[in-house]
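## tool: complex_structure
## caller: assistant
## args:
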Amino acid sequence: MNPLSSTDRTRVRRLPERSSADRSVLYGILDAGMICHLGVVVNGTPRVIPTGYGRLEDTLYLHGSTGARSLMEGPSQDVCVTVTHVDGIVLARSVFHHSINYRSAVIFGTPQRVTDTDAKLTGLRAITEQLAPGQWAAAREPNRKELAATTVLALPLSEASVKIRQGPPSDDGPDHALDVWAGVLPVRQAFGPPSPDPLLRPGIPVPGHIAHRVTS
Amino acid sequence: MNPLSSTDRTRVRRLPERSSADRSVLYGILDAGMICHLGVVVNGTPRVIPTGYGRLEDTLYLHGSTGARSLMEGPSQDVCVTVTHVDGIVLARSVFHHSINYRSAVIFGTPQRVTDTDAKLTGLRAITEQLAPGQWAAAREPNRKELAATTVLALPLSEASVKIRQGPPSDDGPDHALDVWAGVLPVRQAFGPPSPDPLLRPGIPVPGHIAHRVTS
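## result:
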């Protein structure tokens, strides 16, 4: 795989030891996420919107219902897409060295609206499977009217950077003598027992591709 | 409490029934979060950075180490701060009605750098306590050198909007007859057992304010 590009926007200036140029690391961060934060410029000011996404090879697909109307209806424009996982709270002996263990991917580019029907289905499938693997095959596929009502954007993964912090706190030497607990409180996303739609027909069990995700 | 403002930027155009004008709802979403996504405009293009924050009354404090160098060093500029909680995956009978249960807060404004020492400590305390309640009292407070090395930004909570989606899928009537399971897979943030710093002095137990957060 090609390493990630280093452009003026993606070069990690602060703590470059936390950056990664490995494309498989980028894929891993994107594939583990459910939502991204999409940044657009509206009337000169930034706007950040949480929205679903999906990845297929070197394309990131974004769902049209983002609230970023200009992006859906207007001419193509630059965006920034960020996906972040919080892995732990880093508890140091000093306030100054408190931190967060995280993995984040930041992608810059100009997404294009997908208009071809097959390509649109491909994008929607990636977005659906990102959120709920197995659901594309389980649920009713979009009909012509639904497809027409859905905007799909495709963003190439050509300008991206990755930042990762893991591990214990990095207190200053003298602080190690303090009588203060230090370490990491691990954070993860957990899935509870599925809650059936009150309108669910009787006798339809929770399918395996959903049930197996439950962590408690 | 004053209701949230409705400006051109914060008016929720898409699915306005998902918006909330209740300031206590805004506080609840912000207080439950650990990181925000900070949007800035750099050379005309958007940039979205995950970073820590803290709230105290109607001020949101942002930590200086965001990677948004222009924001830390340059003149004050507009930002957008978004905090999002994913509460569930909404599994519908049709692909079209798949969705995410979430709560999000979007704040617009022009943060100011905090320069007064006491005000800076107040902001850092809010940021630290947001991440790890109880740690400000437990850890060593910042010394003069550390304070000088830390940038704190203060953003008034004067222009904000809240969007919430909860509840089961909303499939179209005819789709209810399909032989497809539908419902919600609940998502939450979970905390694992604390992992001590390898350099931790023996005999220091995990304090209660950290131990009580563990969910598994």
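## assistant note: The longest strand of chain B covers residues 79-91. The two ends of chain B are 37 Å apart (CA to CA). Handing back to user.
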